[in-house]
Design a protein that fits this description.
Helices cover 34% and strands 21% of the residues. It is α/β, with parallel strands linked by helices. It has 2 domains: 164 residues, Rossmann fold, CATH 3.40.50; 69 residues. The strands form 2 sheets. A 6-stranded mixed β-sheet has the order 6-7-8-3-9-10, with helices on both faces.
Length: 242
C-alpha cells in the first residue's frame, strides 16, 4: 500500500483558544474525499498552518508527502515540501482591481498586465475548470460576487497540479443557493484529477454535496467519528455554515 499523502497522529497544539487543538489521527490517501466538522475558523486556520509546516505541533506529528514537518531544515526545503498541495482559503489574497483572469494567473506569472502570452492558455484552462464563465474573465474581481471569488480560489489551488487539496470553510460567504452546486463542482474536479480532498467545514450541505466521508472532531479528545444526523439537523435549524 502506498504511503498516505497526509498523516496526522496524536496532534496537540496550543493556539490561545479555549482549549488546545487536538487531533488523534487523520490519514489521507490518494483520491480520498473527506469533510471534517467540529473546527471553528481559528482551529481550522491553525490546522492548515500545521499541515503546511508554517507551525509545528506541541505534541504529535504531521507528515505531508512523506516529510515530517518537524524535520524541515530551511525555507527552500519548506517550499519544496509544499509541492503537490493546493489550498482553497478565504485568507488567500485576491486583488479586486485586477481582472478575474489576472487573479487566476497570479500563481503562474508576475506578468499580469497583460498576462504573459506563454501562460495564458494554462490560465484560461484553469478558469474553465473552475467553472468561471468567459464573460467574467476580463471584469475586475472586485465587481464580482462571492461565488466567483471562490471559483478563483479553486482555480489557483489547481495551478500547482496538486495531489491533495485542502478547502477551508468554503461556504461562509456564499449565498445558500450556491453552496450545493459549487461543492459538487469541486468534487467533480478533484475526481477527474484523482486528487485527494479534505474540507474543513461546519456546513453539512457542503459536506454532503462533495460526497465522501463526513467526520466530526471531538475537541476534547481529538477523536474523529462519522457525522450523524443530529449535526445536520441542528445546523439546518440554527443556520450555521462555513
Amino acid at each position: 500500500m502506498s504511503r498516505p499523502l497526509l498523516e496526522i497522529r496524536d496532534l496537540v497544539k496550543d493556539h490561545q483558544a479555549l482549549r488546545p487543538l487536538r487531533l488523534r489521527e487523520l490519514l489521507v490517501t490518494s483520491g480520498r474525499v473527506v469533510s471534517v466538522t467540529g473546527l471553528d475558523a481559528q482551529g481550522a486556520e491553525m490546522l492548515v498552518h500545521l499541515v503546511t509546516g508554517a507551525a509545528v505541533p506541541d505534541q504529535g506529528d504531521v507528515v505531508l508527502f512523506g516529510t515530517n514537518t518537524r524535520d524541515i531544515p530551511d525555507a527552500d526545503a519548506w517550499l519544496s515540501s509544499l509541492d503537490g498541495l493546493g489550498l482553497v482559503s478565504h485568507r488567500a489574497v485576491l486583488l479586486g482591481m485586477l481582472s478575474v483572469l489576472q487573479n487566476v494567473a497570479m500563481p503562474l506569472t508576475l506578468d499580469l498586465d497583460p498576462i504573459d502570452p506563454s501562460v495564458r492558455p494554462a490560465v484560461e484552462a484553469l478558469a474553465r475548470e473552475a467553472g468561471i464563465p468567459e464573460r467574467a474573465w476580463d471584469r475586475p474581481l472586485g465587481q464580482m460576487d462571492a461565488e466567483t471569488a471562490m471559483r478563483v480560489r479553486l482555480a489557483r489551488a489547481l495551478a500547482p497540479d496538486p495531489r491533495l487539496v485542502i478547502v477551508e470553510h468554503p461556504s461562509a460567504a456564499l449565498p445558500r443557493d450556491a453552496v450545493a452546486a459549487l461543492a459538487r463542482h469541486v468534487s467533480r474536479v478533484m475526481s477527474a484529477r484523482q486528487v485527494a480532498l479534505v474540507t474543513l467545514t461546519a456546513d453539512p450541505t457542503w459536506a454532503e454535496s462533495t460526497g465522501g466521508e463526513m467526520l466530526t472532531l471531538s475537541p476534547g479528545t481529538g477523536e474523529l467519528a462519522p457525522s450523524g444526523g443530529l449535526l445536520k439537523r441542528l445546523t439546518r435549524v440554527f443556520g450555521g455554515r462555513s
